[in-house]
Amino acid sequence: MKIGSLAIAGSTFLAPLAGITNLPFRRLVKACGCAVVCSEMISAKGLFYNSQKTLTLLQTHKDEKPLSVQIFGAEPEIMARAAAAIEAMGVADILDINFGCSVKKVIKQGAGVALMQDMENSKAVLKAVRKATCLPFTIKIRSGWDRSGSQALQLARIAQDQGVDAVTLHPRTATQGFAGTADWQLIRQLKKKISIPVIGNGDILCVQDAADMMNQTGCDGVMIGRTAMANPFILSQVESYLTHGTCKEPSASDIFRKMKALIHLYVAHFGEETACKMLRGRLAWFVKGMPGCSGFRKELSRIPATNAALELIKDYEYRLNAQDFGCTGEKHA
Questions:
Q1: Tens digit of pLDDT for each residue in 189-215?
Q2: Domain range list for the chain
Q3: Active-site residue among 34, 38, 101, 276?
């Protein structure tokens, strides 16, 4: 697949998740075999006003390339300036605009999925951003504000006409959030309506789901978010399955190695105190469904320092092996 001038070596994309897809997590997922990782949502206004918090979200590392940077906002001029600033920084390989966030504070700004109710302003935003940057340019959208998907199809056609290079569709409505089910048939309809690449997103819980989405819709790639939080291997598993027809399940040892790697990445990026507070909940994702995990997760919720976290993992791994719970090869997608 090519997005603009950029050749993508694979079919998997890590979805942008606020508070989750920070630099350490992206590096971990990339090391697991994901084709393209995406930043957290970046405020165009934050960039416009040189917010230090916003600029921190744009920190990157060579080993996570190619990186897609997602921005949100509603004012064409500010969005264009943000796009130009990101290109000038040299941090992004792809620029993405969020047309799908349904969080109230984003909608109140007229941004995110609110833009899908205003096609004229959406067109103005797309036109301004395309003029401001030569980066490969994508958008991420929802079905719209009703189940018909008409707004998604209309916006995608406008995007293609304005020089957007690919569209990601999460086929849930603005009001659904993550509830209900994603209507994959809308992805299929979109693929038939536009000639640029279409990336499907929504309800990919396992490798077979990704294969089914591609087979049923004809989409060019798949984007995975929440499932990758608990199983960062899911993206490489999908790549392997799509290429070779088989994939290897991560062993318990594989999972523990990645937990330890994430600890070191977080500490290096955030500092030990902040990292340990953040990791108390995030490390627990990795062991969901493992024997005896409830007690281990409770212990993780109190980790005070790096060494304590590493010791807890070491002890839990030893207990699993000693009691022969048969975790190796268990699926945690």
A1: 999 999 999 999 999 999 999 999 999
A2: 2-244, 252-323
A3: 101
